[in-house]
Amino acid sequence: MKTLLLLRHAKSSWKQPKLNDHDRPLNKRGKREAPKVGQYIKENNLIPDLILCSTARRARDTAQAVADESGYNGDIEQLSDLYLSDTACYLDVLQRLPDNVNRVLVVGHNPDLDELLTLLTDVSEHMNTAALAQIDLPISCWAELNEATDGRLQKLWVPRDK
Fold first, then answer.
1. 130 close to 113: Cβ distance less than 8 angstroms
2. Phi, psi (degrees; rounded to nearest 5) at 3
3. Is the pTM higher than 0.85?
4. Residue 25, preceding peptide bond in cis (omega within 30° of 0)
5. Is the peptide bond before 111 cis (omega within 30 degrees of 0)?
6. What are residue 152's DSSP bridge partners?
7. Which residues pair with 132 in a beta bridge?
8. Span 20-33, average pLDDT
9. DSSP letters along the chain, please?
10. Nearest Cα to 26, choosing from 100, 120, 129?
11. Which residues, in sequence order, are CB contacts of 128 under 8 Å at separation 6+?
12. Cross-strand partners of 133
């Protein structure tokens, strides 16, 4: 059994309209909510073995805040494949994970995360900013993960629930 934690980046700022989308920072709400996700992860014993995130600034900042608050002390692997991609890219990244990783946190973007959640669980939910989905996957190694994997959504949590 593997656990996949999907986290949509926290709320980003649109105050600088000329700023490249990839470089948008978190806004005030995002800076408040990202650490709450880390607290939730710590309180629920969901600290990942590995954190993967998009190279976009808002995803990197979210991942770092979550890592800091949860007590995660590993590396945060930044992957350009998780920025403006699709579910096939996400699956490819996950299929290449080492088997000693039992729980992975992926910090990314919509619509990719909504689509991946539906693909792996048959549950159609919209992931708001800073939403965290906990998915149990009936696989023993990541290479087994595919479009037909019948994952189970354990929880979809957003900081505003707290």
1. no
2. -120, 130
3. yes
4. no
5. yes
6. 136
7. 7, 157
8. 85
9. -EEEEEEEPPPB--S-TTS-GGG--B-HHHHHHHHHHHHHHHHTT---SEEEEESSHHHHHHHHHHHHHHT--S-EEEEGGGSS--HHHHHHHHHTS-TT--EEEEEE-TTHHHHHHHHHHS------TT-EEEEEE--SSGGG--TT---EEEEEE-GGG-
10. 129
11. 8, 158
12. 6, 156
CA 108 to the chain's CA centroid: 5
Q: Residue 25 is encoded by which pair of tokens? A: 């920072």
pLDDT tens-digit series, residues 43-87: 999 999 999 999 999 999 999 999 999 999 999 999 999 998 899
- Hey, what domains does the chain have and what are their CATH numbers? 1-10+46-122+135-141 (3.40.50.1240)
User: 74 with 49: CB under 8 angstroms?
Assistant: yes
